[in-house]
Structures are given as structure tokens and as C-alpha cells.
Amino acid sequence: MGKLRIFMMTIGFLFLFALFSPTVHADDSNTYEVGTDSLHIRSGPSYDSAIIGTLVDGDRVTVFEEQYGWAQTYYGGQKAWVAGYYLIPAENTETSAEVAGSSMNTTKLIKAASDASGKLENYHIVLDAGHGGRDAGAIANNSVLEKNITLNTAISVAKELSEAGADVTLTRSDDTFIQLEDRVRISQTNETDAFISLHYNAFPLNGVNGFSTYYYADGEEQQFADDIQSALEQYLDLNSRGTRQNDYHVLRENSDLSILVELGFMTNPYDLSIIQTKEHRENVADGIVEGIMEYFNK
Q1: Contacts of 187 (CB under 8 A, 6+ apart)
Q2: In terms of pLDDT, which residue wins out, 195 or 106?
Q3: What is the CATH number of the domain that holds 123?
Q4: Residue 43: exposed, middle, or buried by beta-carbon count in 10 A (0-12, 13-18, 19+)?
Q5: What is the pLDDT of residues 117-168, one digit of tens each?
Q6: Domain end position, chosen among 42, 75, 104
Q7: Which residues of 85-110 are buried (b: 16+ CB within 10 A; e: fewer)?
Q8: Within the chain, where are the H helices?
Q9: How large is the C-alpha radius of gyration of the chain?
Q10: CA nearest 200: which of 271, 143, 248?
Q11: Which residues form the domain of 182?
């Protein structure tokens, strides 16, 4: 009899828990719209997880959780995940899947300024602020994080490009972790004229210093890197290390015109004193804008 009483009490507890446990309803949460041609629904928050379904452009979802850029929804009565970078806010309507949480738009489009000079009108530039979120990048003096400097630099460059007439997409506009493949996808899902990844360097020997520009493919990308590096040389009070070829993922896997710029060594005391300043960020912006104009105006 005692065992039966315990069993009945357990069943009753589970019933009450199911009845009164908090739930999230679509009308209490944010609705998003798929902003790409097709978006795979996966069993877990990674590209290695199994594909269990597909959404198409215009489908609507409601987010229950975000994890490193992935949005958790429900599909077929089970937890499922989609890449949050392809979701855009939408008004609450009927949903094809359930997805509640913070905004998934880590990317940001900055339109050309209304009073822009027009020198880069009709050009679309993607700026990639290196690292972010759980990936701090290089760390100097146990407190200066590369991810913060790259983001501040990207924002300064974006402002200058906008004033020159260009439309600009930031792969991240806050302290968010974005996988390398998603940085490339952001470039390739836009009509991108140039992709520029911004970084700051580090080396075990603190005497190593300077800035450099990397490209993957010979030809146009090498020329673009040369133009950017030459322009930066006119603005930065740092040692120029020239242009170099490298197979960085965001360059190798990107079919768009793309380069990666290392804008100084965080492990060098002099470089570090320069790269933390507003003046440096503005000089980087001036140099990159001039280099882009030099390349496209040939």
C-alpha cells in the first residue's frame, strides 16, 4: 500500500508540474522571418548536426533560445535549430515553426549617408570585425581584448564608407561569436563588392610590430590588397609589413573579392599605445576608404 501511495503522489506531482510549469507562446515572443532562399532546420546548434527539415524565404519562426548564433525552435514536436543570422524581425503572424529570445540580427546594414560624397555610390562593402563573444582574439596586459578593438575599428570604417556613398554590412555589430563559415555566408548572401576582415596581431616576441594586408588569390585580390596597404601606409604611424598571401578561411572560402588586414601588434608596446586610440581608428578608416576608391576607380 505504501508503494502505491508513493506512486500516486509521484503521478500527481508530475501532472501538476506539467500543468503549471511556465510555457512560451508565440504571441508572447518575437517572430522572425527567414531572409534567405532556403534555411536548413537541424537537430542541434551546429552545421555538423543532422538536417531534419528546410524553411524557405518568407517562412516565419518564433525563437525560444539563442546559442552562439543558433536559434532554437520546434519542428515536428521536437527541439530544432536554425542559423540565426538568416532571421529578420517580423510582425507576429502565424508561424511555420516555433522559435523567444534576444534579437538574432547580429549583422547590421548601414546605408549610404544622405549627404554622402558619392565617390563609392552603388558599392556594397562587407566589414568583418574579427573574433567576438567567447572568442576574445589576442589579449594584451590581461585586459585589452582584440575583439573589442576590431569592433570599434569596423564601426569607424563603416561610418567613413557610408559618408563616401557606400552601403556597408557589418558581420557583427556587437560582442557576438560568429563562426567563420557564417562570416563568409554573410558576404556571399549579399551583393558584395568587397569583403574586408579586420584584425590585430600578436607574437611571442614583443619587438615584432607593424600592419599588413593578406589576400588568398593572385590577381585582383592581390591588387586590392596592394591598394589597401599602400593607402594605409599614408595614414598609419606604424611599420608597414607589406602584403602577404595566406589561406585564411574567410578568404579561401569566399568567392567575393576579399582581404584580411592586421592593423598592428597588440603584443608590441608602441603598437598597442597607438591602436587603442580614436585617432588610429579614424586613420584606418581614411586609409581603407582611399584604398577602396583607388582599386575601383582604375
Answers
A1: 126, 128, 171, 195, 254, 256, 258
A2: 195
A3: 3.40.630.40
A4: middle
A5: 678 999 999 999 999 988 999 999 888 999 999 999 999 999 999 999 999 9
A6: 104
A7: bbbeebeeeebbbbbbbeebbbbbeb
A8: 2-20, 146-163, 180-188, 220-233, 249-252, 269-275, 278-296
A9: 23
A10: 271
A11: 108-296
Same-domain pairing of 79 and 125: no
Question: Which cell numbers hold the place of 180?
Answer: 567563420
CB count, 10 Å around CB of 13?
10
205 vs 52, more confident: 205
In total, the chain counts a number of residues equal to 298
- Are residues 120 and 229 both part of a single domain? yes
Output the domain CATH number for residue 30: 2.30.30.40
Q: Is 205 left (phi over 0), alpha (psi -120 to 50) or beta?
A: beta
Which is nearest to 86 in space by CA: 42, 122, 50?
A: 42
Q: Do the domain assignments include residue 15?
A: no
β-pair partners for 61: 32
